[in-house]
């Protein structure tokens, strides 16, 4: 897989509700949309339920972004929330079988770790054979709190532990992207002088006074991480609804609070060097919702050349909504399955992995397969009472909730229309060719 592009966005939304459109923020005017979006928000408005760290109900921002990105062909693969701190990852639909081992973690650092108004949330996943970790953090506020911000970062790095044996911590991953309202300010220069330098586009003179830049040079935080040049004006603090820096009685100094950095372990694989190239790093001044401007960056990363998903479905022609239906899939050698795995029926334009119509559990035996194994599953008539339309099947890892294989898109039709249906599956195919299905190997059938 080459030219795999990851779009990162961080925005402190200041407890405001989402806008109607995000076309410019998400780069929809580009002819080449990214493969993955990772959206990190801070100060998302919410009530008591926002203390829950994983989604029970979507917050308005996640609902809006999911709807917008689904319209562009993206599926939400994971989201995590810690009070006002939200991180959500989306990928193009055809990448789903190659985005595996998805997990999330969170760390509270506010009030000595008792409250989640500050802290960090993260999502890790494997993509085409390499592992990626994305962190969204909101560190301690105020000009003088540099030591507290560094401590917040250290607590996040030390406390977050994943179940993946090869990558138990954030810094163990091949690619790490760290973004958020890091809250670092500009030292030693009066507010009026900073504003004058911004108007004169003399940003480079401010860099040496940026607290994060100085702390990184002293190797106190984000050691070995990289950051692109700060060629955009400081993203904080604005009068909401304007492009004017803070005119309140506090007259806070402008600062680059909102940042995106990255780290690549280039030599993770023998004979193959990983790399991440930053395509852009900018703020979006047209968004005036809060006292922060959103900041985005796009990275082009190198992945391994993996083209075959672990689970392959045989082509499906059509199903009748008034009858039972059968699907056949194969499990590659070396793939480990579980009794928690299931096959979900989804509408073709499903928004996230919980957006299924119905499901059946994957048949036993389970464990690590020593040969290619074929399985047959039947969906009962009672579970297919759904409206006619375009659908697909997904084999879901029930432990970590990710897709291991997808079928082609097929039609579910009325019983009296079945004779008129096409004799070939839809050209929108997620599974392999029919030759990829070893229907003669250890075939077992289940009716669930």
UniProtKB/TrEMBL annotation:
Pfam families with a match to the protein in the record: Exo_endo_phos2, SKICH
Domain Inositol polyphosphate-related phosphatase as annotated: residue spans: 2-307
Record GO terms (molecular function): phosphatidylinositol-4,5-bisphosphate 5-phosphatase activity
GO biological process, one term: phosphatidylinositol dephosphorylation
Gene Ontology CC annotations of this record: cytoplasm; plasma membrane; ruffle
Biased composition, class Low complexity, residue ranges: 420-432
Source organism, top-level taxon: Eukaryota
Region Disordered: start-end pairs: 416-448
SUPFAM superfamilies: DNase I-like
Gene3D superfamilies attached to this UniProt entry: 2.60.40.2840, Endonuclease/exonuclease/phosphatase (3.60.10.10)
Family in the record: Belongs to the inositol 1,4,5-trisphosphate 5-phosphatase type II family.
Name under which the protein is recorded: Inositol polyphosphate 5-phosphatase K isoform X1
Species, as recorded: Lingula anatina
Lineage of the species this protein comes from: Eukaryota, Metazoa, Spiralia, Lophotrochozoa, Brachiopoda
Gene that encodes the chain: LOC106168966
